[in-house]
Structures are given as structure tokens and as C-alpha cells.
């Protein structure tokens, strides 16, 4: 189900399409910063101040305000605490710059303290494409009856084809939290319920 695109969502789609072109055509090494809780924007700003390109994946969300029950269009993180960082290695940018940035707790790696995982461009473009689809108006359906511990199949988005276990449910029931396989390991992700179906 889709809804019409608001001017704000149209502007976000334009920004995301620009990011998609940058990812595809600028030779950067992409790594994933693990940020302190609720510090993704702070980390992105700190790295941006040093000229480092970052991408914080978000998806569109429509929610009702508290008292007057108006519907507002907003967005939420697609992967809580994760920030993609594009390093210009030829220009002298290093993972140490990322580790030292305000708001960054560490880097995603296969082994604790090991080298940072490099994110393939094809994987990152799938994440961006999912974000673009949400801002183009793909409606999130509320009312799915997933419970903690349910095994579900991801049928849409960058993690399509994976079976995951529901570890948390967002307020309103429009998204679940689960660990998914990505970038050579397991990461926590927030998945819209309309991208899931009960596993057979």
C-alpha cells in the first residue's frame, strides 16, 4: 500500500538519490560506526566537520500526535546506532578518525577489536533503495500480530530472504527489532512489519 508523497518526503528522496550516486561513483571505502545510544547525528556531525562523508539510514514513518491525534510524517532510524562512513583512503582518511569521533563507540568488525568490516557497495545501495521506497510512500501497515520470539521471514528490503527472531516490538506495532546477517556478522535492525511474514 502506498500514500502520496509530501514535499518533505520528496526532498528526502532527492537527497537519498544523490547519496546513491555518490556511493556508486565515488571510490570510497565504507565502514560502519557503532554509535553511543542516540548519538548517530552527533557522530555524523563530528565526522562531517572533518570532511568525512556519512550516511545515516532512515525510513519514513507516519504517526499520530498525542493530544490532538493529527497524523504527521516523520522518520526513524532503520538500524539503531549504526552510521555508514565513507573513507577517502587515498586522501588520508582512516578508521582511526572514525573511532576518535564524538559519539562513536567503535566500528563494526567480525571479531572484537578486529579490523573494521568493509561494506560492499551493492549492500549499501540496497539499504539506500529501501529508504527511498519508504519516502516514496510505501505505507507501513499496522496490526500485524508478531510476538516476541516469533520466527519471521523478511520479504522486502535489504535483508530480504533472511529468517529472523523477533526480539522487540515498536510502540504501535509498526516495526520489530531483530538481529540480521549483514556485513560479515550479526547486527540489530528495526524492520517494518510490512516487510515481514510469518515463517512457515
TrEMBL record:
InterPro entries found in the cross-reference section: NGN-like_dom, NGN_dom_sf, Translation_prot_SH3-like_sf
One annotated GO biological process: DNA-templated transcription elongation
Alphabetical list of Pfam families matching this protein: NusG
Organism per entry: Pannonibacter tanglangensis
Keyword presence, Transcription: yes
Keywords from the named record: Transcription
Boundaries of every NusG-like N-terminal domain copy: 29-120
Protein name, as recorded: NusG-like N-terminal domain-containing protein
Origin: domain of life: Bacteria
